[in-house]
From TrEMBL:
It comes from Nocardioides dokdonensis FR1436. The keyword Kinase does not apply. GO terms for molecular function: DNA-binding transcription factor activity; transcription cis-regulatory region binding. Residues 14-74 form the HTH tetR-type domain. Residues 37-56 bind DNA. SUPFAM superfamilies: Homeodomain-like, Tetracyclin repressor-like, C-terminal domain. This is Bacterial regulatory protein, tetR family. PROSITE patterns: HTH_TETR_1, HTH_TETR_2. It comes from the Bacteria. Gene3D superfamilies: Homeodomain-like, Tetracycline Repressor, domain 2. The keyword Ribonucleoprotein does not apply. InterPro entries: DNA-bd_HTH_TetR-type_CS, Homeodomain-like_sf, HTH-type_TetR-like_transc_reg, HTH_TetR, Tet_transcr_reg_TetR-rel_C_sf, TetR_C. Keywords: DNA-binding, Transcription, Transcription regulation.
């Protein structure tokens, strides 16, 4: 970063950047977004606040980067079935089945509602790639004929995350991969896929 007097200030990079982002996530989970401060993150990361501001212009940009790092790289699954893709996307690493995932959402839910800067960055940089992956998974399923023709994807796609968040935040039931798996199999797929043809027992021949 070049200052107005022409000098160059070092950026926070590499392992040091990772350490600061990990510290930011820890403070976020402990205090929530509203009470998180750059001072608190700097103290946790054993860095100066000025060092943080050389890399992040606000706590919104810092927290968004911390959330992106926590999620890790996103690989869009292509298992050949909607069920396989949903399980791969939501039950594995970076999915909805870990306590950190819902604790993180709980810590930022109020900020999304009243902090426009944070909400815009969160939806663009954290949710955006996940939504694109979800859209692709469902589009492939529709192309394969796995979902009902009249299915409203705008309603169904976010339903799984909404159920998990409601159970965690409102009911106090921490999620795990098995719970997410059962939600997919018992709620999402039955609601989205065409009904199976009723099985008819073979007619018995009458003996003369």
């Amino acid at each position: 970063m070049t200052t107005t007097d022409g000098t160059v200030r070092p950026r926070v990079r590499g392992d040091r950047e990772r350490e600061v982002l990990e510290a930011a996530l820890e403070v976020l989970l402990e205090d929530g977004y509203d009470r998180l401060t750059m001072d608190a993150v700097a103290t946790r990361a054993r860095a100066s606040k000025a060092t943080l501001y050389r890399r992040w212009t606000s706590k919104a940009s810092l927290v968004v980067d911390a959330l992106r790092q926590a999620k890790g790289p996103l690989e869009v699954p292509d298992t050949g079935s909607l069920r396989g893709d949903l399980h791969a996307l939501y039950c594995g690493s970076g999915g909805l089945g870990g306590p950190t995932a819902t604790a993180t959402l709980s810590s930022i839910v109020t900020a999304v509602g009243h902090d426009p800067e944070f909400a815009a960055a969160f939806r663009r940089d954290v949710l955006g790639p996940r939504l694109e992956a979800s859209h692709l998974v469902w589009a492939r399923a529709r192309a394969r004929g796995e979902v009902r023709d009249d299915l409203d994807l705008e309603l169904v796609e976010p339903a799984l995350a909404a159920i998990v968040l409601h159970r965690a935040v409102v009911l106090g039931h921490a999620p795990d991969p098995d719970t997410v798996s059962r939600l997919i199999d018992q709620i999402i797929l039955p609601a989205a896929t065409p009904p199976r043809p009723a099985h008819r027992a073979p007619e018995q021949k009458e003996h003369p």
